[in-house]
């Protein structure tokens, strides 16, 4: 007999799909409802790996499912092909980054095809193509016009290994670079930014629209990243300075408890205040402190368990409500680019301030009595056991009183609760012109310039007059110059600055000598809008075609790793809102639903070459076949969970696929059979699968669907071998259903089964069959009820009825009661579900 041979199936069907393009998205005249299913596009670093294999297998289940449900599905793929790894690889190997990038793309492209992703191969895009990045430049110019792209000098995260700036999002919690692993330092540079902070409220508030369709974890991460705080700005006059210093506080109610002020050492304010200090020693100590501070990361600076350091600047601020003189310190726990880079320190009620006050012997004044309840019932405690406020003195205990209570030592605020005190103090400050309500965000503007070659050139020309001149739109794209003669080795300024033919250009306004901006854009710009480009990838006249956008966008289902929970998703949400404001799209959220797949691990930890636990996808595919690997990914568990490759069995998957495939060899009926004549028990199981699988797929319970398929395969095999046989119409019906179900997970096997079952077109485009409701209700069987061996009645009962229940129902029948009369029942014979016999004697 024929054997299941996955290699033969792959060789047979790949060229057929290549030729027939079953997944080309028909654009004109297709009346089906549309679904846009998008997998996060890959970075072309080497060949596909196990992580890709998982992500794209799961995304493909969703795409194939909606196609099967009668939707016109757009499922595109492309490459996120600019970026540092290509450039670093190029430097190491002495290649052009283009060569490394496009070689890898070619390899991944053919691997993807073999992996049978149901992509529309006519829509491929690469972000490093000038035809693509031209539109990054267009987007930049649109944002520049609106003041959403701007340049400023500021302290930036600097990766000393890659010699480039990093976005905050690229600095790991331990202060190292996500890219190179180096400890990130601060450096002052003039850089391009996108004004994402203007959108902070909308980025936060619109998360509500995504509840239920995005993982709750991702929503929470976005919310924390944006980090909105509500409070007040308070102005403090500073002795010897004309302008007051403003601080942001979330606790203006504690203003009477402020005992000193702290400024961020790396803020312009601190530098100015130190320069104006009367003591030369202070100025020197400040300078060396600043140098020290610049070596530490923001995360380190905010760590609460770190000993507090700081310098007293010998300057004084005046508390606007009581005229007290507050010493001004510079300390690194205050950050330069949050709020105003300065805080009013209230050590009694803020732990960081308290740690600092205790380290430097500064006064602590309690202004909130946390023992006085604010609302609700007073706890019934023995008055003698009540602690005294003095016992809780933070100056002694070292524990700040952060809780609620009533205000004390606070003049007009005394006796008020926190929220009433906040309201009252803001009123007082506003009346005096020394304060106002304020909001702050953890989110900073998006730093988009990079001093590297392999990215989108920023379309700005710097005139000799120091002004910025946007490159006129009809001169886009500003193409990257060739690498010949350029040294790509990182050195802190862009290599493009040395491309003299490229960088020296006439001023677009008056033709005078001018220079191009040499920086390139963060590649997160490229990926912030690529989902729109897929809708008209070859349009040379616009970034995207609004008619196609109307048809397809936003993305119905986005699939990708949780590693992108913040960066990419936040930027894409931001750019979508910008495009909405500019009138280019009519929606404000790019991705209506999001599925995060887990990671593929090995023996409990992430795979890596250095750990020696790398499983090569190509080896797995050679050994088990594409379908078995894909099926294993779907069967391993809920998609959001990690898969430990040591715990799963691709060999088991391959065996199951062979068992399923062999069924077609034993189907001896032809496609014109009448289903209704088939074996009822097998039909019931088939139709239960048809009824349940769609809901399970939509709930992403892919593993459960695979388990049900395994049961159905067993049932069909049993029907063939020891039931009604391979000619029964129900066997054909079951096996066709198995092929339809398998087509979501194991496209080669399913396609081959389908064709052997007598169908010409691809199983992927056949559709789904509706379950017959009459086969979904439970069948009843007839139980015969006898008295002394004589049939007295019949009962319709479930085939699974229990003996006792059957006996009870039988005994309750009037016909049986009548037959028994006043005789005594001595024995009851019960053969559930078929028979009950009451044996009596007078
Ligand atoms: C006085 C105060 C009293 C504060 C109190 C808190 C508790 P979030 O919630 O993170 O927004 N702060 C303000 N600017 C800062 C900066 N640049 N670097 C470090 N800390 C800064 O925190 C806001 C609080 O963090 C502000 O409220 C301020 O301390 C501090 F019992 O002001 B608070």
Automatic annotation (TrEMBL):
Q: Which GO terms describe its molecular function?
A: aminoacyl-tRNA deacylase activity; ATP binding; leucine-tRNA ligase activity
PANTHER family (alphabetical): LEUCINE--TRNA LIGASE, MITOCHONDRIAL, LEUCYL-TRNA SYNTHETASE
Instruction: State the protein's name.
Output: Leucine--tRNA ligase
Question: Which major enzyme category is it?
Answer: ligase
Which NCBIfam families does this chain map to? leuS_bact
Which EC numbers does the record give?
6.1.1.4
Which reaction(s) does its UniProt entry say it catalyses?
Answer: tRNA(Leu) + L-leucine + ATP = L-leucyl-tRNA(Leu) + AMP + diphosphate
Q: Which cell locations does it reside in? A: Cytoplasm
- Where do the Leucyl-tRNA synthetase editing domain residues begin and end? 223-429
Renumbered to this chain, motif 'HIGH' region spans 42-52
Ranges where the Methionyl/Valyl/Leucyl/Isoleucyl-tRNA synthetase anticodon-binding domain occurs: 679-802
In terms of Pfam families, this protein maps to:
Anticodon_1, tRNA-synt_1, tRNA-synt_1_2
* Keyword annotations: Aminoacyl-tRNA synthetase, ATP-binding, Cytoplasm, Ligase, Nucleotide-binding, Protein biosynthesis
Would you identify the family this protein belongs to, as annotated? Belongs to the class-I aminoacyl-tRNA synthetase family.
Q: Which CDD domains match?
A: Anticodon_Ia_Leu_BEm, LeuRS_core
Motif 'KMSKS' region is found at 606-610
Q: Residue limits of the Aminoacyl-tRNA synthetase class Ia domain?
A: 13-211, 443-644
Which domain of life does this protein belong to?
Answer: Bacteria
Q: Which GO terms describe its biological process?
A: leucyl-tRNA aminoacylation
A Gene Ontology CC term for this entry?
A: cytosol
């Amino acid at each position: 007999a024929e054997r299941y041979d996955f290699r033969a199936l792959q060789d047979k069907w790949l060229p057929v799909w290549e030729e027939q393009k079953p997944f080309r998205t028909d654009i004109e005249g297709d009346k089906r409802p549309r679904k846009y299913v998008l997998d996060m596009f890959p970075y072309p670093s080497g060949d596909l790996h196990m992580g890709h294999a998982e992500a794209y297998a799961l995304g493909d289940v969703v795409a194939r499912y909606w196609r099967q449900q009668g939707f016109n599905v757009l499922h595109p793929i492309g490459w996120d092909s600019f970026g540092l790894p290509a450039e670093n690889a190029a430097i190491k190997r002495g290649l052009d980054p283009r060569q490394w990038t496009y070689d890898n793309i070619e390899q991944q492209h053919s691997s993807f095809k073999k992996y049978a992703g149901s992509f529309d191969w006519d829509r491929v895009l690469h972000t490093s193509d000038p035809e693509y990045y031209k539109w990054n430049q267009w987007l930049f110019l649109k944002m520049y016009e609106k003041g959403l792209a701007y340049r400023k000098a500021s302290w930036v995260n600097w990766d000393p290994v890659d010699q480039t700036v990093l976005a905050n999002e690229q600095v790991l919690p331990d202060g190292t670079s996500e890219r190179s692993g180096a400890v990130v330092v601060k450096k002052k540079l003039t850089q391009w930014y996108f004004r994402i902070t203007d959108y902070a409220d909308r980025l936060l508030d619109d998360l509500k629209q995504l509840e239920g369709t995005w993982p709750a974890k991702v929503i929470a991460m976005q919310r924390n990243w944006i980090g909105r705080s509500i409070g007040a700005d308070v102005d403090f006059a500073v002795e010897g300075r004309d302008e007051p210093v403003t601080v942001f506080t979330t606790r203006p109610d504690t203003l009477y408890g402020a005992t000193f002020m702290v400024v961020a050492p790396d803020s312009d304010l601190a530098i100015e205040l130190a320069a104006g200090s009367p003591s030369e020693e202070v100025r020197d100590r400040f300078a060396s402190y600043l140098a020290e501070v610049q070596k530490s990361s923001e995360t380190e600076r905010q760590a609460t368990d770190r000993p507090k350091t700081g310098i007293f600047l010998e300057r004084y601020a005046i508390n606007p409500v009581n005229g007290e003189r507050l010493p001004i310190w510079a300390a690194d726990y205050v950050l330069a680019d949050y709020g105003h880079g300065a805080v009013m320190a209230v050590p009694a009620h803020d732990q960081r301030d308290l740690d600092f006050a205790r380290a430097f012997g500064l006064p602590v004044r309690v202004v909130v009595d946390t023992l006085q309840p604010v609302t609700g019932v007073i706890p019934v405690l023995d008055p003698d056991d009540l602690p005294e406020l003095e016992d809780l003195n933070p100056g002694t205990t070292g524990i700040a009183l952060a809780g609620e209570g009533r205000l004390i030592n606070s003049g007009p605020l005394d006796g008020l609760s926190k929220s009433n005190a906040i309201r009252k103090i803001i009123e007082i400050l506003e009346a005096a012109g020394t304060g106002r309500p304020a909001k702050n965000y953890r989110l900073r503007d998006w730093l988009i310039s990079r001093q590297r070659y392999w990215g989108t050139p920023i379309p700005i020309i710097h005139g000799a007059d120091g002004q910025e001149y946007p490159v006129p739109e009809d001169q886009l794209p500003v193409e990257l110059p060739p690498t010949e003669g350029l040294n790509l080795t990182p050195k802190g300024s862009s290599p493009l600055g040395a491309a003299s033919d490229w960088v020296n250009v006439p001023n677009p306004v008056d033709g005078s000598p001018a220079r191009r901006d040499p920086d390139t854009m963060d590649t997160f710009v490229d990926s912030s809008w690529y989902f729109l480009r897929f809708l008209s990838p070859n349009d040379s006249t616009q970034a995207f075609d609004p008619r196609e956008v109307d048809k397809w966008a936003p993305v119905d289902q986005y699939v990708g790793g949780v590693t992108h929970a913040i960066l990419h998703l936040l930027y894409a949400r931001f750019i979508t809102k910008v495009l909405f404001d500019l009138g280019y799209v009519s929606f404000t959220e790019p991705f209506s639903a999001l599925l995060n797949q887990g990671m593929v691990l090995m023996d409990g930890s992430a795979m890596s070459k250095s750990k020696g636990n790398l499983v090569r996808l190509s080896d797995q595919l050679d050994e088990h076949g594409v379908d078995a690997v894909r099926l294993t990914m779907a069967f391993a568990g809920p998609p959001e969970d990690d898969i430990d490759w040591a715990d799963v069995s691709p060999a088991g998957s391959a065996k199951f696929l062979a068992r399923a495939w062999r069924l077609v060899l034993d189907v001896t009926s032809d496609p014109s059979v009448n289903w209704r004549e088939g074996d009822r028990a097998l039909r019931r199981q088939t139709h239960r699968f048809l009824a349940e699988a769609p809901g399970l797929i939509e709930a992403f319970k892919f593993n459960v669907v695979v388990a049900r398929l395994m049961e159905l395969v067993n049932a069909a095999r049993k029907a063939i071998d020891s039931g009604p046989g391979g000619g029964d119409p129900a066997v054909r019906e079951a096996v066709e259903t198995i092929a339809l179900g398998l087509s979501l997970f194991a496209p080669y096997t399913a396609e081959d089964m389908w064709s052997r079952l007598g169908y010409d077109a691809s199983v992927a485009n056949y559709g789904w069959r509706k379950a017959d409701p009459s086969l979904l209700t439970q069948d009843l069987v007839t139980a015969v009820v006898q008295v002394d061996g004589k049939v007295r009645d019949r009962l319709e009962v479930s085939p699974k009825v229990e003996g006792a229940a059957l006996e009870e129902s039988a005994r309750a029948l009037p016909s049986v009661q009548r037959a028994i009369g006043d005789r005594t029942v001595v024995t009851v014979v019960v053969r559930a579900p078929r028979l009950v016999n009451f044996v009596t004697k007078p």
